[in-house]
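Session log. Operator J.P. requested a structure for one protein chain; no other inputs attached. Running the standard single-chain path with C-alpha cell output.
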Amino acid sequence: MDAFVDLLYWRDVKKTGVVFGAALLLLLSLTVCSIVSVCSYVGLALLSVTICFRIYKGILQAIQKSDEGHPFKQYLDQEVALPEDVVHKYSDLALAKLNKTVCELRRLFLVEDLIDSIKFAGLMWVLTYVGSLFNGLTILILVLIGVFSCPIVYEKHQTQIDHYVALVNNQVKDIVGKVQAKVPGMKRKAE
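Structure written below.
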C-alpha cells in the first residue's frame, strides 16, 4: 500500500512517470484502436524487443566464444504462480463487496427508503448528462490524470484547499438546513 501511495505522490519521479505514461498511452491508444488491436500491438512490440535482444546476445556469445547461457534465465527461473491463499483472500473480499453492492442496489431500486431512492435517481439523471458529454474512455483518462495530479497538488497547497473546502462545506450545510426547514418531510435522520 505504501508503494501505491508513493506512486501517487510522485516520490520516485521515474517510476511514477513510467506508470502514468504507460497507463495514459494505453487509454489514449484505446480511443483510436480496439482493445484487441492494442493488446496485439503491445505484445508484438514486447516480442520484437525480447527476440532482438536474445538474437543479439546469441551473436555476442558466438563472437566472444563465451557460454553465458540464456539472457533471460533469471526471469525464466522465477516463480510466477499466484499463491492460493492470496487468491482466496482477495476473491473473498471481492465477493463481500459484490454482495454488499447488490444488497444496496436492491434497497435503492425497491425503494426501501424514499429519500435515498430519490437521491439515487437524481444521481442517475446527472450521469445521463455526463454520459452524453463523455464516453467511458474519456472519463477513465480524466480519472487517471486526476489520480496522479490531485494528491501532489493537495500536498503542496493543503492549507488553502482546506480553507476553501471548509467554506464550501459550511455554505452547503446552511443551504441544506434551509431546504430541510422549508420542505415538509425532509427532516434530518437521527445520527
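Operator note: DSSP finds eight helices and no strands in the chain.
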